[in-house]
Amino acid sequence: MTRPALRQAQGDRPDDLVRAVEATLFAAEEPMSAEAISTHLGGAEVKAALAELQAFYHGRGIELVERGKRWHFQSAADLAHLLRREREEVRRLSRAATEVLAIVAYHEPVSRAEIEAIRGVQTAKGTLDVLMEAGWVRIVGRREVPGRPVIFATTPDFLTHFGLESRRDLPGIDELRAAGLLDPVEDALAAAMDVPGQEDAPDTGPDEVEAES
User: Fold this and answer.
1) CB–CB of 97/132 below 8 Å?
2) What residue ranges define each of the domains in the chain, with the CATH number in brackets?
3) Phi/psi zone of residue 78: left (φ > 0), alpha (ψ -120 to 50 degrees), beta?
4) 173 and 190 Cβ atoms separated by less than 8 Å
5) Between vectors from CA 210 to CA 92 and to CA 208, what angle results, nearest 5°?
6) Separation of alpha carbons 112 and 151, rounded Å
7) Are 78 and 84 in contact (CB under 8 A)?
8) What are phi and psi of 59, to 5 degrees?
9) Contacts by residues 187-194 (CB-CB < 8 Å, ≥ 24 positions apart)
10) Where are the alpha helices (DSSP H) in the chain?
11) Coil/strand/helix, residue 56
12) pLDDT tens-digit profile of 57-104?
């Protein structure tokens, strides 16, 4: 029996540190790292409290999860269908943006030229702007080659939005298809994840330029 379950059975309340961590995360406007929580609570060691809270909320309607080394409360994944009534795809990505997001996620850090080499088509500046405005892609520096092009990578918010603890949890093509997550439109994501030169990569001319969406 876990400590939270034991306390619940005995009618004991959690200790003050556990309650303080719980209140801090509940009131936070964005996910917080263990270090940030500790600093907020005057340097207290919070890892054990986080583990205790995570165990207590496991299987409930609200769960405590860690994504990209940051902690936050979220609705249980199996109850998502109950919450879609009012937030049905608030942000819909175009095919081009889906491809670019997939390339950045699976090949980061990448430059715009590298994205275009994988897609086989030039990428409108607006496409990357949309992804950065969404908070899923960010500039992380410059490639140390002639011209020093800007390079892009995903953000912690990307991991949070898609329910990933780290990029190691990104699914492969077979997993996406088995889960029924690739329909004819979303096959753009599958094509974007392919390595250049494979037979099913997009066969478009180098002079094609995508339209702004």
Assistant:
1) no
2) 3-82 (1.10.10.10), 95-193 (1.10.10.10)
3) alpha
4) yes
5) 155
6) 7
7) no
8) 85, -5
9) 188/95, 188/98, 188/99, 188/102, 189/98, 189/99, 189/102, 191/99, 192/98, 192/99, 192/100, 192/102, 192/103, 192/106, 192/118, 192/119, 193/102, 193/103, 193/106, 194/118
10) 3-10, 16-27, 34-40, 47-57, 80-83, 95-107, 112-119, 125-133, 156-161, 173-178, 187-193
11) helix
12) 999 999 999 988 999 998 888 887 777 654 444 456 788 888 888 888
Looking at the DSSP assignment, which residues form a beta bridge with residue 64? 73
pLDDT, tens digit (0-9, with 9 covering 90-100), for 92-120: 678 888 888 888 888 889 999 999 988 88
**Stated pTM of the model:** 0.47
